[in-house]
Design goal:
alpha+beta; five-stranded mixed β-sheet; 3 helices; about 25% strand
Length: about 140
């Protein structure tokens, strides 16, 4: 089963640290997924009894539009815009166990002793005519 979740920072109120907060959340999420172990890894019921979790994370920052859509009993809160689309593409083009960030997020996070980055990659994203630079976000190593 594939599931996607979107988290927005700084959407409802201005928060100057929202990009850093999202980066910290992504690192914590990835750590939790990588450390996950099922309670009963070998119960012998089936090959599906020992789930493996995989996680891909993509982060982008920029303007977005949010609102409630629908009529009467079927209302949905949603977020739209190029920022959302780029974040989604960063996620889908990322590698399992990695956090891919856009150049805008990299710029917002540097310099920082809290984060490290894999050298930039040039990627092509669906719907974008030109390649974009992306980075893999890493926790800073403590020496």
């Amino acid at each position: 089963i594939n599931a996607e979740y979107m988290v927005c920072g700084g959407l409802l109120r201005s928060e100057p640290e929202h990009v850093r907060m999202m980066a910290r959340l992504a690192l914590q999420l990835l750590d939790a997924v990588l450390r996950f172990r099922p309670l009963h890894p070998t119960d012998g019921l089936s090959k599906w009894s020992c789930p493996t979790l995989h996680c891909q994370v993509g982060i982008h920052c920029g303007p977005a539009v949010a609102g409630i859509l629908g009529q009467k009993g079927k209302l949905v809160y949603d977020v739209f815009g190029d920022t959302v689309n780029i974040a989604s593409r960063m996620c889908s083009s990322s590698l399992y166990g990695h956090i891919q960030i856009s150049e805008a997020v990299h710029a917002a996070l540097t310099p920082s002793p809290e984060f490290a980055f894999h050298p930039p990659l040039e990627i092509r994203l669906k719907g974008k005519p030109h390649p974009m630079l992306s980075y893999f976000l890493l926790p800073a190593t403590s020496d």
